[in-house]
């Protein structure tokens, strides 16, 4: 055993047993961050804050929520909202956080795409980030079921049904997921388990992996500049702070980050206090009723783009079963960003505004996904007409085709061109 001296205080006592000073150095005071990054790099810490908010508000809700089809709706809409002191506040905090967390995730993802932060050794950061996106999606969906309102029930019906289209195992898989032949009590209890136990544990572990994957490549910077962190850190420690390109995470970088988090929290609590309704669908204030299908079923705003891809292929295309095509498109759309580092194989790590055609690609992709989101909320038909022809499905179909062209044709072509140019420049 290592030699233990008489401690000079609590910190020294802990340090002799847990090496907390070394840990603090490694994780905070000597964890180096580039100087030239802007407020968009605070999104990660905002996401951590929002996850904390979801976790704590979730614990309070869990004290009164009842996972039973006969009790769930009232436990939320009556007990929590009307009987428990500040129950409404915890519920609004939870629902609003669940919605804005996706807004911040999308910003965080698109910032990474804009600056090429998924390339050159940063693939694992990107992959663990995409795993977090998928896990948050599963958490969002399973949480939406818990109040057991009309949308909870029918969304569960639609989404679990999708698995039925998988060849051979589909129908059995649907029964297995539902725990019954139809969406019912066992479906609610298993989604409850996922939402309050399994998913939070896996999310915490994946956040750990995401942070760990930042250690070696470090975060990117506004210019995509590649430099020697050890060398720059040495300059900083020698007192050449102006000359050095890095700052320590604690206390310098975090103070900037916390400023941005503070501004974000003002926005968040404003929504919680005054506009919480955007995060709660009015149809979900009616209890689940399997005898009454809502006229228009749609998911929360953050799933609308991929839902529209699912619907986009409901278009009758001769000879091909339209449902399976929609399902394939939906599955590919949800997983395709995972392989982004391999679709964009250009060695150029630079912000999009310095990458010519990639800049156009970036903005077209954003517009396409916003377009899919808007049309994902439109009822399936009979909205827009040219003469007597209903052109509504064409919008979703066009944006869907656009999405796949951008990813599988335009992006590899752009990066091939960049690769050739980079090769020629060498
Ligand atoms: C949802 C939970 C998430 C948390 C808590 C989180 C947290 C963080 C933090 C703290 C950073 C470092 C600072 C920063 O750049 O903001 C970071 C960086 C990064 N994250 Fe996330 N992230 C999450 C989700 C995602 C998702 C969904 C993606 C995209 C697929 C992603 C991709 C990245 C990338 C590529 C970087 C490196 C950025 C750079 O090098 O400039 N993260 N994340």
Task: Give the low-confidence spans.
Answer: none
Largest sheet: 2 strands, antiparallel
Order of SSEs:
HHEHHHHHHHHEHHHHHEEH
Measured between the Cα atoms of the first and last residue, the distance is 55 Å
- Kindly identify the CATH topology of the largest domain: Cytochrome Bc1 Complex, Chain C
The best one-word shape is: globular
Lateral strand order in the biggest sheet: 1-2
Alpha-beta classification: mainly alpha
CATH superfamily of the largest domain: Cytochrome Bc1 Complex, Chain C
CATH architecture type of the largest domain: Up-down Bundle
For the record, the count of structural domains works out to: 3
Bound molecules: protoporphyrin IX containing FE
- Helix percent reads 55-70%
Supply the CATH class of the largest domain: Mainly Alpha
Overview of this protein structure:
The chain is mostly helical. It has 3 domains: 1-30, no CATH class; 33-223 and 232-297, Cytochrome Bc1 Complex, Chain C (Up-down Bundle); 305-426, no CATH class. The protein contains 16 helices and 4 strands. The chain has helices at residues 10-18, 20-29, 43-62, 72-83, 87-115, 123-145, 150-162, 170-178, 185-214, 229-237, 249-274, 304-312, 322-336, 340-343, 357-376, 392-425; strands spanning 32-34, 246-248, 385-386, 389-390. The termini are far apart. The model has no long low-confidence stretch (mean pLDDT 93). The site of protoporphyrin IX containing FE (HEM) has 27 residues, from helix 3, helix 5, helix 6 and helix 9.
What would a concise description of this structure say?
It contains 16 helices and four strands.
